[in-house]
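Tip: read the tokens left to right.
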């Protein structure tokens, strides 16, 4: 499936809840937020129907996210339902890991192929401060359990000046002895992140080179997103950089997002999209659903426009959009 810019759209990120067990500083205010009513979020049957329609249009890769996806009862049952959809080649999950403690083998059996685990530091006190209450030991246990289960594991870190910067090389060193990718994602000015100070990828890459020596470009297969990977000498795994602000990759964007309340979101920084919940609950046919999806995706914005004035700038928080 191509959009109007000629980009192949083969990847959907599905937020199944806006709820989360943490309150990370770049995602949610400390006091929490008002959450969607259960009646306002898509049922698993509705999500499955949308995924089946997207698959017929060419989507092959699905990521389940939140909020925290494991905060929704039955998350792994949904993974299993998606696993049985013909033509879906990979199912991944973005999670903080805590609620997966003791559930990794079940996730593997359900059909999960890969985990992206949000982790910004290996210092337990700094971790508690950033997440406002997270338990680091559970996250580290889930990482090891996932590797033992044969899942592909990536660590997602969002470096924020004044919060986590002192421990970033230590975090990257997780990839020295483990076959994982530690990725550093530039903070985007979305929601609570707009009030914080990002650390550009080029600065981080220089820090990694100073700590570990020359960084060799790693062109092995890591997934279906925009990260650029390097590997220091002696590392089993790799270090990745996702740079939406300093090295825009909109020309290669291959994804759309489905929010928990059923909105097909075409770009992270634009409000443009399609209210699928209304269509589904109004009884749209399978043919009509495919047509609506195809026509909406054709209107996917050319660029995110984070650094310029745009008329439909997104104002929701990441837990509402889907992390």
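Filled-in amino acids:
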């Amino acid at each position: 499936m191509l959009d109007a810019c000629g980009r192949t759209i083969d990847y959907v990120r599905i937020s199944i809840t806006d709820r989360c067990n943490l309150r990370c500083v770049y995602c949610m205010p400390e006091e929490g937020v008002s959450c969607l009513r259960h009646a306002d979020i898509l049922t698993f049957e509705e999500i499955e129907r949308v995924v089946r329609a997207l698959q017929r249009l060419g989507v092959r890769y699905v990521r389940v996210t939140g909020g925290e996806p494991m905060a929704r009862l039955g998350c792994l049952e949904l993974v299993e339902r998606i696993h049985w959809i013909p033509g879906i080649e990979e199912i991944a999950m973005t999670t903080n890991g805590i609620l997966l403690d003791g559930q990794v083998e079940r996730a593997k059996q359900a059909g999960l192929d890969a985990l992206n685990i949000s982790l910004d530091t290996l210092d337990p006190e700094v971790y508690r401060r950033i997440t406002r209450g997270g338990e680091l030991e559970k996250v580290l246990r889930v990482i090891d359990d996932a590797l033992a289960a044969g899942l592909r594991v990536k660590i997602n870190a969002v470096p924020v000046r004044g919060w986590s910067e002192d421990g970033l090389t230590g975090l990257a060193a997780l990839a020295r002895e483990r076959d994982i990718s530690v990725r550093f994602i530039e903070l985007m000015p979305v929601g609570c992140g707009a009030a914080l100070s990002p650390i550009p990828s080029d600065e981080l890459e220089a820090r990694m080179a100073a700590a570990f020596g020359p960084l060799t470009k790693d062109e092995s297969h890591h997934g279906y997103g925009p990260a650029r990977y390097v590997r220091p000498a002696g590392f089993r795994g790799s270090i990745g950089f996702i740079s939406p602000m300093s090295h825009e990759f909109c020309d290669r964007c291959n994804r759309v997002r489905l929010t928990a309340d059923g909105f097909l979101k075409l770009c992270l920084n634009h409000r443009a999209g399609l209210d699928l919940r209304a269509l589904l609950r109004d009884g749209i046919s399978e043919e009509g659903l495919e047509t609506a999806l195809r026509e909406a995706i054709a209107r996917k914005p050319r660029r995110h426009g984070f650094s310029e004035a745009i008329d439909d700038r997104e104002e929701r928080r990441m837990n509402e959009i889907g992390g």
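The longest strand covers residues 90-95. The two ends are 24 Å apart (CA to CA).
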